[in-house]
Amino acid sequence: MKRIGYLYNQITDFDNLRQAEANARKGKKHQPGVKLFDQNPEGNLLLLNDVLINKDFRTSEYVTFPVYEPKERLIFKLPYYPDRIVHHAILNVLKSYFTLWFTADTYANIEGRGIHSAANAIKSALKNKSATQYCLKLDIKKFYPNIDHQILKALIRRKIKDQDLLCLLDNIIDSAEGLPIGNYLSQYFANFYLTNFDHWLKEQQKVKYYFRYADDLVLLASNKPELHAYLQDIRIYLRDNLKLEVKHNYQVFKVEDRGIDFVGYVFYHTHTLLRKTIKKRFAKAASKKNPNSATIASYLGWAKHANTNHLIKKLLPKRCMNTNLKITEPSRISVVSQETNCK
Questions:
Q1: Of 12, 23, 134, 154, which residue is least crowded by CB atoms under 10 Å?
Q2: pTM, two decimal places
């Protein structure tokens, strides 16, 4: 594939910046940074346009804070203006290219390929029972913090030749150690970092059943020795090409015995269950005296993709099933009314 160029002018285009700002503010219009920007929106965008055209943009200082669910992580946050708008402006132009570069087996942070797409792909694979008797499940040790900047920048240069854009991306990449969790661009950089690995597994190693969601990997095969051989090759590839390590808690097991715990579900050949932690949170939300309709709708959205009829009947009183919770699409739940009849 030819390297792409002439992208920087598309990013700095004023209409693109206007669209980027509209995208960046979705769901955030009450945040202080957005309110501050709104004091002079046109002037701020004109100034940002000049800064980018003159190649004077530099990443702002991060604010960091820890989160503890679902696991402990340090979150990095940049100002709404100019940084988050710039990230959206870049992705307005690059997102379609990233999607072309990713394999069909990558599901995280890709439009139209989220959790439920990954779940459906696993279910489809498991229909071939003889070829999916065993599972290798693994993830990568401290994936985001351990991403190597020089390797990432070299990989990007294999795809992009626009020097102005490369300088802008370099500035963002080098603004923190590894890839900062919380940066809008980080999730795309992280997916891209593993793209050659994905292609290697599928095209050279000929792994038929492979699924990746961020740094969580699932491989299926008919026997254990085949999966252990893949594991050894994966360790070598990640170490030698990406300076990454497989986390010590990898598992090779028979699907029939324990199921595949992946993207919030536990998959078997015959049925699919909700992950235990999600089921517990669902039960806690449903047990409240006045359950929140939006919360219940969200959990029902998860439950509808698994074999959970018995669970739903157990957790939700019969009257609750007559509420105005409407399933509009497999992965979208709309709450028509904020009131619920659950008691």
A1: 154
A2: 0.87
